[in-house]
Write a structure and sequence with these properties.
elongated; four-stranded mixed sheet; Nucleotidyltransferase, domain 5; alpha/beta
Length: 298
């Protein structure tokens, strides 16, 4: 007598049915012929997969049962990761971070996908994604070795606790990232306001950062900016524990030049600072195409 395995779920049943149909059709040549029967049961829908017979010579009953469990595990794990996961993440965000607005929740959801390696078209080719899929796949096979019925909703809740913990961790990291970016945007807006209300003290400032990481500011005649512009900032740095990059941004905001020309930068540690300068001063910032200052050694 052929074995019957039933899959029950509250959602994605049309997807399960379509995938089962296509996967099991391909397996007929390996001795697996399965009849599908759909039946409702309250809020659940069940798909019964019944091994109808052996279509290839010598195929054993044990072989076809193993093949059926493998195919069902492959389909269920695929649906969980590629479709059910979105619902799980959104439910976690809605329940735990209800105080955010709809647009903020959407951003947190997008960040969560990034943290579980599901961002971009190549997501399914990452080692992390494949590892997650293999772990879920094996847990389903282990379960089906002793059970002829699997209810996906309950299986996720009670048998995939490590997986759910990974999703919760991803949402927590996403919220942290979202809050940091929001604080950064508010900080940039504040600096932009300071620049707008500040009377420009110089027409142009040339910013040069050496390979060693030190910066220098030059005026329109390519002379170092006068010390009376900078002395106060060095005092602030000593009194308020400002770092070198904070000093640079503070100096530029106080001078509020109409134009900032950035010369060739050989030190990658200033990338974030330069992005901040470009964000604050927007169209006032330009890049030098190359001059004697750009090739100057520190």
């Amino acid at each position: 007598m052929g074995q019957t395995i039933s899959i029950g779920a509250t959602q994605h049943m049309e997807l399960f049915k379509a995938k089962l149909g296509s996967h099991l059709k391909l397996c007929e040549g390996q001795g697996l012929k399965v009849d599908l029967e759909e039946s409702p049961a309250g809020k659940f829908t069940f798909l019964s997969c019944h091994i109808a017979g052996e279509t290839q010579r010598g195929s054993s009953n044990e072989h076809t049962q193993i093949l059926l469990r493998q195919q069902l595990a492959e389909i269920i794990s695929d649906v969980i990761l590629n479709h059910w996961e979105d619902v799980l993440l959104k439910d976690m965000i809605r329940e735990n971070y209800y105080y955010f607005g709809d647009e903020e929740k959407k951003l947190i959801f997008d960040y969560s996908l990034r943290h579980i390696n599901r961002e971009g078209k190549e997501a399914q080719n990452t080692l992390y994604w494949l590892s997650r899929k293999n772990q879920i796949n094996q847990k389903i096979i282990d379960f089906l070795n002793y059970n002829n019925r699997i209810i996906v909703d309950g299986f996720i809740r009670f048998r995939l606790k490590e997986y759910l913990a990974e999703l919760r961790d991803a949402t927590e990291k996403a919220v942290d990232e979202f809050l940091m970016e929001r604080e950064y945007r508010e900080f940039i807006q504040l600096l932009q306001y300071f620049v707008e209300v500040q009377e420009p003290r110089m027409e142009i400032v040339h910013l040069y950062i050496s390979e060693s990481g030190s910066f220098r500011l030059f005026d329109d005649k390519m002379q170092p900016v006068r010390s009376d512009y900078m002395d106060g900032f060095f005092l602030d740095m000593l009194e308020n524990e400002m770092n070198y990059e904070d000093l640079l941004i503070s100096a530029l905001i106080t001078i509020a030049p109409r134009r900032i020309n950035i010369h060739q930068v050989c030190n990658n540690s200033y990338t974030t600072t330069l992005e901040t300068i470009r964000s604050v001063f927007t169209d006032r910032v330009s890049e030098c195409p190359g001059c004697s200052l750009c090739t100057k050694k520190p």
